[in-house]
Amino acid sequence: MTRVVVVGSGIAGLVTAIHASDEHEVVLVTKDVLGQSNTRYAQGGIAGVMFDDDSVESHVQDTLTAGAGLCDEEAVRVLCSEGPDRIRELIAYGVGFDRAGSAPDAAFAKGLEAAHSYPRVLHSGGDATGAAIEAALVHRVRETSVAIHEHTFLVDLLVEAGAVRGVLLRADGEEFVVRADAVVLATGGAGQLYPHTTNPLVATGDGAAAALRAGAALEDVEFVQFHPTALTSAGSFLVSEAVRGEGAVLRDASGERFMQRVHPDAELAPRDVVARGIAAAMAAQGGLPVVLDATMLGAERLATRFPGIDAAVRASGIDWSLEPVPVAPAAHYWMGGVRTDLHARTSLPWLYAVGEVARTGVHGANRLASNSLLEGAVFGARAAAAIGVDLQVGPSTSSGTGKGPVIELQDPVIELVEMHRSGPSTSSGTGNGPVIELVEMHPSTSSGTGTDGPSTGPGTGGGSGTRADGFSRAALHELLWRDAGLIRTGDGLAAAAGILDGWAAEQTAPPTTDEESEDQNLLLLARAIVAAALQRTESRGAHARSDFPLTDPIQAVSTTVVTTGAAARTIATPSLVGAAVHVPSGEMLASC
User: Fold this and answer.
1) Mind giving me the DSSP string for 77-135?
2) Which of 213, 271, 276, 339 is catalytic?
3) In order of start, what are the domains of the chain with their CATH numbers?
4) What is the DSSP letter of 438?
């Protein structure tokens, strides 16, 4: 029987594993416990056309509008048209979406979120939608033949003759290989690049970084969505924009609503608009947070509709039925990722990507609220179907949708060299238009010296020159929050690129622990994001450049692709060369 390895256990990975288990031997790998993923923490709900007075076309247009011109319309139509069937499948698995009445057959309760023209968002348990979906899928996957391996870290992809043939894993400090006929990355995003994030600690970009090292193309990586409303009194706990959908408003330090001056939709404008509106208000009042006023909803409504948020807010010492809560933007979602086609195929044969780790084209420059869970379900099912087809007819790779510059990262450090490429897009994911190749240079030319400037607020791109001290995750957080955060500048990005290059040059020893591997992955993805953000000389969606505040019509049809140019590299470690491979835990893996 053919073997499929799925890495990650959020909605995308679990749906893929469940569907693939019908025809294949499936190994599901997760670096924490099963069910620990971004899906579990999703409050907002899942968007889908489930009401007679809604339409797929309306959902498509809302998604395209939010995406600020960079969505792949064909991918969006797949998402919106197949979404309802995937939601019905979740219901069959046991997800109990909230109803408008007490009767079992009552209509689903409608939820409105920012940038939706119709209240098409379904919730479960008020603000516990992700947890409900995760629990149902975990229960379902345990009923299948899927072999589940928890606390198992993806170190790298095994690449032979330019194709992915398995994974290099680490469990209990020991590295081992699992060979596979197909590998599916469902590892989520990289929210831990930033100090203020709504993402769990596991979101360190492991799958995207492994794909990049193996030679897969990444696309649209400069687009990082910052959620407008994270609690400042309780870490960065997310306050769903469904709260604003119910009528809550944002106020500045003087108590005035300010979003009405920013956008006609005020608090329900697209997320990037609201986040930047909050950042501007914070800057005008000396960096103090703004407040979210939900007092008009009353204690009973808040506790019933948002039980999880209500508990978190009250645990922080605030009765939000009587007083507003302080909020500020926090890193939330990565629109970019591993480039895929409509069937989750990447630019490397036998490698597939689904969920936040993938760049399917449905989100463009800014994700529409509550489309992420839907994307995981739709493209997880599509990935499983594609694997079945490809195993019969031979591998197929993504030609991608890139129409702009290509950035090639080569260790140890990088220098920007502009080139030109012509000809059609190929399966290597290089695309048309100018190519930006990042080539090796001597480490001493970019390690730099200098001093740090003060932080200028949440991602205001102040720039800081280069750093004399070495790499740490805390230093990476500080750097990206300041120079590659919510608002960016060319000077800040260039300075950050130099610092990141210097840190990369210092990384000479291979990582031996999960934490070291996570740091390596975050550093690689930081370099990719900064390089792409420096290349995009406009403001579009979640990418805001204060030195280029307007959109550029020429760049409206341009995506940025990042590669390492290492598509033929074979990943190996000394422990795997000329030695037997010991595979711990599990009969299924013993035949690897």
Assistant:
1) HHHHHHHHHHHHHHHHTT----BSSSSTTPPBPPB--TT-SS--EE-STTT-HHHHHHH
2) 271
3) 227-330 (3.90.700.10), 406-568 (1.20.58.100)
4) E
How many Å is the Cα radius of gyration of the chain?
Answer: 23
How far from 240 is each of 38, 136, 169, 352, 542, CA to CA, in Å? 14, 22, 35, 30, 18
DSSP 8-state code for residue 238:
B
CB 76 within 8 A of CB 68: no
Residue 128: its pLDDT value, please?
82
Whole-angstrom distance, CA of residue 64 vs CA of residue 114 = 14
Phi and psi, residue 296, nearest 5°: -70, -15
Tokens representing 475 are: 């230093």
- CA distance linking residue 338 with residue 186, whole number of Å: 11
Using the Cα atoms of residue 475, residue 479, residue 482 and residue 485 in order, give the sign of their dihedral.
Answer: negative
H-type helices in 369-485, by residue range?
A: 372-393, 473-483
Calculated CA dihedral for residues 57, 62, 68, 71, nearest 10 degrees: -40
pLDDT at 314 over 90: yes
Active site residue 271: yes
CB atoms within 10 A of CB 262: 18
DSSP assignment letter at 220: -
Assign 13 to helix, strand or coil.
helix
H helix runs in 453-513, sequence order: 473-483, 490-506
How does pLDDT run across 358-408, given as a tens digit for each residue? 999 999 999 998 999 999 999 999 999 999 999 999 877 776 544 566 777
470-528 pLDDT, tens per residue? 899 999 999 999 999 999 999 999 999 999 999 999 988 899 999 999 999 999 999 99
**Residue 27 near residue 180 (C-beta atoms within 8 A):** yes
Beta bridge partners of 121: 47, 111
Residues 34-48 have pLDDT tens digits of: 877 767 767 679 999
Which candidate, 15, 225, 241, places its Cα nearest to that of 127? 241
Burial grade of 467 (CB within 10 A; 0-12, 13-18, 19 or more): buried
First-to-final CA distance of the chain: 13
